[in-house]
Design goal:
Elements: E1 21-24, H1 31-35, E2 46-51, H2 52-55, H3 58-64, E3 82-85, E4 88-93, H4 102-114, E5 122-127, H5 129-141, E6 147-152, H6 155-161, E7 166-171, E8 174-181, E9 186-189, H7 199-216, H8 218-226, H9 237-256, H10 271-280, H11 288-305, H12 311-323, H13 333-336, H14 342-354, E10 364-371, E11 374-380, H15 382-387
Helix pairs in contact: 4-5, 5-6, 6-7, 6-9, 7-8, 7-9, 7-11, 10-11, 10-14, 11-12
Bound molecules: nicotinamide-adenine-dinucleotide.
């Protein structure tokens, strides 16, 4: 048998997605000055997307009022609201993971289409990871690829979701099953947004921050380990420094491996367990970061079981996570409420992990650690996984 081969070589996909500018702002964010400075006529059309909770924040009022029309005829902004400011559009979606659906993504696409959006339009997601993931996804599929800028407003989206170009939505009750790689051209990070987060959401973001410290920043980890309380000061210098450290660490990883062929997989520490928990407890029941924190405790136990790390290291990680109030026990309380036995819970979780898109075969792949900063990626037999889930 003979054959011929031919390569087709393409320039980088999507003009403008080869580079991301990240700006860190001090003080309160002024969206009007970010997006409406300069010559009006030279500005591209923007499709702004946010959710009802973010739209209700006082810091958003002066921006949103421009989209409500002269008569301010919408006393309360509800999900589905669309408003115009010149050629720009603002769409407000429902808040939270349950709205991370293909229908919401299509609503963004429709808002752009209904307003004569072109491929040159910039889709701007202002919100947590749900909004930034969906807005960037909509930008990536709109007319085969428009442009994207992000304003992350949760700690989680600042340190993780908005950075690195993973976009998408949930589908068929599984997390992030539909999506694309589509890096934003600009990310505007304003730490003061975290002051209004609920305790649950703040802690959720902290889990990703802790994850990044465990993976890449041993010195920072030791500092927060000595004084975890300091991270609770949302106006403090430590959390601002933590945000920068995490963004830079993630940027370094995604620069080398945008489409997660190798080292980017490390960023999924705690996620295989965490995503299974999020999916099987019912999307939205366990916050993403809380799932990741529990997943990091399970990964520590699994690392110990496989002889990768010492008992002391696994204990150190779990004690640290527990000091933030995160669940570290094998059976998560949210699962106990839903399933009859620990046995059933473990099986349900393993089945969900098998569907994880990160697996290369039937075997489930985990990110495990030998120590802080020493990470291994390995496939693990089912019996070992079951053993750390009950
Ligand atoms: N793309 C990636 O690389 C990546 C990485 C990690 C997580 N994610 C995704 O991110 C999502 C989770 O993100 P999240 O935790 O930001 O959730 P989220 O977007 O649902 O935000 C949580 C809640 O906080 C509200 N909120 C947002 N900003 C606020 C503020 N400043 N003050 C008060 N309330 C505010 C939101 O309206 C929402 O109700 C998940 O869907 C996850 O899959 C993506």
């Amino acid at each position: 048998m003979t054959f011929e081969e031919k390569d087709i070589i393409y320039p980088p996909l999507h003009p403008g997605t080869d580079r991301t500018f990240i700006r860190f702002y001090d003080g309160e964010l002024d969206l009007n000055s970010i997006f409406y400075a300069g010559e009006k006529d030279s500005l591209p059309q923007r499709i702004f997307v946010t959710d009802t909770s973010v739209a209700a924040l006082p810091v958003m009022h002066s921006f949103i009022d421009f989209f409500r029309g002269e008569d301010f005829s919408h006393p309360k902004i509800e999900a589905g609201f669309t408003g115009k400011r010149g050629k720009d559009v603002l769409l407000i979606l429902g808040a939270g993971e349950t709205f991370k659906t293909i229908e919401s993504v299509l609503a963004i696409v429709k808002a752009a289409l209904d307003n004569n959006g072109q491929r040159s339009a910039v889709f701007v997601g202002i919100g947590g990871g749900v909004i930034t993931d969906m807005t960037a996804f909509a930008a990536s599929i709109f007319k085969r690829g428009a442009h994207c800028e992000l304003v992350p407003t949760t700690l989680l989206s600042m340190v993780d979701a908005a950075v690195g170009g993973k976009t998408g939505c949930d589908f068929d009750s599984y997390k992030n099953m539909i999506g694309s790689f589509f890096p934003a051209q600009k990310i505007h990070i304003c730490p003061s947004f975290i002051e209004s987060l609920s305790e649950r959401e703040y802690r959720s973001g902290m889990a990703e921050l802790v994850k990044t410290a465990l993976l890449y920043e041993p010195e920072f980890f030791e500092r927060i380990e000595k004084n975890p309380e300091a991270l609770n000061d949302r106006k403090g210098a430590l959390i601002k420094e933590g945000i920068r450290i995490c963004v830079n660490a993630k940027a370094k990883v995604v620069e080398q491996d945008l489409t997660e062929k190798n080292i980017r997989m490390q960023l999924n520490l705690g996620h295989t367990f965490g995503h299974a928990l999020e999916s099987m407890s019912g999307l939205g029941v366990v916050a993403h970061g809380d799932g990741v924190a529990w997943g990091m405790a399970r990964a520590a136990d699994l690392s110990q079981r496989l002889g990768l790390c010492t008992k002391e290291y696994a204990k150190r990680v779990k004690n640290f996570l527990a000091s933030f109030g995160w669940e570290t026990e094998p059976v998560h309380p949210a699962m106990k409420e839903k399933y009859a036995s620990d046995e059933e819970i473990a099986k349900v979780l393993v089945n969900a992990m098998k569907k994880d898109k990160k697996n290369s075969s039937d075997r489930i792949r985990f990110i495990l650690q030998e120590n802080i900063g020493e990470t291994v990626i390995t496939e693990v037999p089912e019996e070992d996984i079951l053993a750390v889930l009950k």
